[in-house]
Amino acid sequence: MSRAVRFDRYGAADVLKVVDVEDRSPGANEVRVRVVTAGINPGEIPVREGKMHERFPATFPSGEGSDFAGVVVEVGDRVDGVAVGDDVIGFSDQRNAQAESVTIAADRVIPKPHGVRWDAAGALYIAGTTARACLDAVRVRRGDTVVVAGAAGGVGVLATQLAVLAGAAVVATASKENHAFLTSIGAIPVEYGKGLADRIRKIVPDGVDAFIDAHGDGNVEVAVALGVDRDRINTIADHVARKKYGVKGDGTATVSPREALIELARLIAASELQLPIAATFPLEQVRAAYERLGRGHGLGKIVLEVSPAP
Fold this sequence. Notes:
Blueprint: E1 2-6, E2 17-21, E3 30-39, H1 44-49, E4 67-75, E5 87-91, E6 101-105, E7 109-111, H2 118-121, H3 125-138, E8 145-149, H4 154-165, E9 169-174, H5 179-184, E10 188-191, H6 196-203, E11 210-213, H7 219-225, E12 233-235, H8 239-245, H9 257-269, E13 277-282, H10 286-295, E14 301-305
Parallel strand pairs: 8-9, 8-11, 9-10, 11-12, 13-14
Antiparallel strand pairs: 1-2, 3-4, 3-6, 3-14, 4-5, 5-7
């Protein structure tokens, strides 16, 4: 038996509980991982609240979570390339990552490089693959001027750095307390809110080539007002504006998660990419973790510390 996050009805964070569940031994092509850290993501909130029931219905009792990192403790008979004792980064579509034990297909884990901290490893999947998808969607190229709206969040902070690495000039919208960090990673920070389009025009008077919206709240309208070609605007946060203006809405489903994770982990291990951690919580405080996530304005990701690191 081990502990896992569960909810048996739709609702706010208070429907979450941590309960004992039976560990499942791996099948022939699966591995079982003792989870060290697990990430939480904004997209999990509307699913748990029932707002996405038509698209992502829950089967109760439901688990939570897609991102995790840990140590392999069992392998199936037909598994090659993964061994007991391996440190791995995992990615799940089964809503089961926020748990002490995860059994999953062996091709849904990659080796965790030694240079990647456990907190970053456990929070990398959704934010990292979504950031990769955003850059691919707007076709970021060397010499481009790119705006990343919501640049201090998990997706935005990675998208900002990936765009800088690609050779683009990046204007990063965020609250003032995060401007120093954004400057340190090579971006030009600008405060979000009313008058944003005018502030961006002053910073980049020659115009904007591409726009990544990781925040919503009117940013697609700002991109349109700036004259960005609509096929180079991508939003992951404003589905109404996406339909209204005919812009893109590409996310994690549009990239190969395994290939993207391997690339991102390599960049982090090489100190070419950072994933800041805004806060950590023990598994038993998962409600508090989601309440903290809901308040916003943190730099980077929120992580659940599930079990001691080896």
